[in-house]
Amino acid sequence: MSESCYHIPVMLQPCLEGLSINPDGTYVDVTFGGGGHSKAILERLSANGHLYAFDQDADAEQNIPADDRFTFVRSNFRYLRNWLRYYGAIPVDGILADLGVSSHHFDTMERGFSIREDGPLDMRMNQQATRTAAEIVNGYDAGQLAEIFDWYGELHNARAIANAIIRDRQANGEIRTTAQLHKAVSKQLNPAREKKDLAKVFQALRIEVNDELVVLKEMLSAAIEVLKPGGRLVVMSYHSLEDRLVKNFMRSGNAKGLIEKDFYGNPISVLRQLKGYPISPSEQEQEQNPRSRSAKLRVAEKTKEQ
Fold this sequence. Notes:
Layout: H1 3-6, H2 12-19, E1 26-29, H3 36-43, E2 50-54, E3 70-73, H4 80-86, E4 92-98, H5 103-107, H6 133-139, H7 142-151, H8 158-172, H9 178-185, H10 194-210, H11 212-226, E5 227-237, H12 240-252, E6 260-261, E7 267-268, E8 271-273, H13 283-288, E9 296-302
Parallel strand pairs: 1-2, 1-4, 2-3, 4-5
Antiparallel strand pairs: 5-9, 6-7, 8-9
């Protein structure tokens, strides 16, 4: 499987510029996927440099390069600190995270991520995990479903969508496919923005299946610990929930965005955002790769030890 058909690396040049790569340094790509970003990082490392790459998806292993400077870690990036400690790789010079679902996942209907094709309600990033989207859709009550559609999908009619699912379950039995889910909620979707709202339903389920926001918080906390002073944290997000979390961490060092101050009232933070606003893909890139359109890139530098 070629990297190009697996995943086109989004904002490749801005990511590399954000990392400010030291050829002899140690770097981490916590979202290896198709390996596009990793390949570009390796091209900029000397024989003394090293790259560690994380991915919990078995499919990603097909893209591992034959390179002594590369170590693949088949694991969720929430365990970043543990694995880098295991390899004796702390501290590191830079960490890259591309939080988007890869084109490979969207295009493989058996994984259940896409709203365009019918497939099983799966949505697991790690195929060895036990909980699927089908278990949530068929096992959660109306209140639980409404909660995730509200929190993770930011849908104003979350309760109506949840109730529609319950009614469909009662009338037709279990909802097992993406097409069945679409049919169950279709009357609650505004025809003018049906695809966008359906995508939000899928997003909410995917976040719940993979515990994405909790995992992201754990990775960001670990990143602050394992980076050396002057090291860079480069994170690309694709929806407002992720971006808000990343922004808060880079601004304050915590998920809530609460800025601590010293005795004199000066802000205390171990990170410094290099820009106060996110970087977006160029118009040319958005035309060439439509899935990059919602991407937002933020870069921060560690200023001191915790």
